[in-house]
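From the methods appendix. Each design record in this collection lists the tokenized structure first, followed by the designed amino acid sequence. Records were kept in a plain field format so they could be parsed without special tools. The example shown here is representative of the layout used throughout.

RECORD:
FOLD TOKENS (223 positions):
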């Protein structure tokens, strides 16, 4: 382990300060002057940091360190019992873009019960997947159509769109699903795939209303 000098101790204290502005400045300093001696603390802080902007700066600081040290440490976090640790490690791996991390993006992570972990896994997967694994990944992602709220569904759609043409056949099962929410999500994703400027259509929410009320009641409440 690389020893921590007194300057590092001051920085580590700032990373754990009560004031988020102080923590943000400390993370910025860690990235501006990258030092492998800070790797463990940066990863550990990422797992518990409550402020989005500080977490983002911690990710940037980690990308400034040598990948040969950072990637193995982040891979260890993927089996953490803390959801934020898994999510932030996946996010940082997607920013580093080292494809040696691909085998660690398991089906368990892609289907993680925590939506934020799953979303981070989807984003990391589309960055790291080798060409020969793109079709299988698309199928795995498409199996989750209809999951979560609008934000989660948009993340999944964007991941599928990022995979390109291999996503089109993967959507077929969803388009034929008996679940109206799944069908609506598949249609919205297909539109995005064919026209990225189309926006994420709101008919997913309409499908949820139909599913909740039943088609007869939903029709009776329409204007």
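DESIGN:
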């Amino acid at each position: 382990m690389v020893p921590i000098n007194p300057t590092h101790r001051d920085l580590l204290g700032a990373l754990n300060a009560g004031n988020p502005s102080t923590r943000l400045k400390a993370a910025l300093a860690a990235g501006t002057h990258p030092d492998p001696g800070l790797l463990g603390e940066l990863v550990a802080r990422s797992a518990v940091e409550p402020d989005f902007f500080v977490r983002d700066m911690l990710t940037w600081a980690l990308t400034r360190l040598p990948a040969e040290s950072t990637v193995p440490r982040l891979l260890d976090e993927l089996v953490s019992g803390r959801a934020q640790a898994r999510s932030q490690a996946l996010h940082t791996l997607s920013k580093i873009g080292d494809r040696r991390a691909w085998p660690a993006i398991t089906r368990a992570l892609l289907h993680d019960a925590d939506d934020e972990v799953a979303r981070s896994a989807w984003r990391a997967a589309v960055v790291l997947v080798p060409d020969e694994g793109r079709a299988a990944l698309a199928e795995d992602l498409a199996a989750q159509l209809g999951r979560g709220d609008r934000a989660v569904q948009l993340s999944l759609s964007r991941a599928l769109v990022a995979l390109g043409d291999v996503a089109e056949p993967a959507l077929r099962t969803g388009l034929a699903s008996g679940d109206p929410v799944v069908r609506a999500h598949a249609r919205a994703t297909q539109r995005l795939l064919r026209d990225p400027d189309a926006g994420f259509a709101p008919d997913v929410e309409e499908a949820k209303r139909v599913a909740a009320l039943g088609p007869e009641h939903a029709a009776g409440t329409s204007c």
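APPENDIX NOTE: Confidence is low (pLDDT under 50) at residues 217-223.
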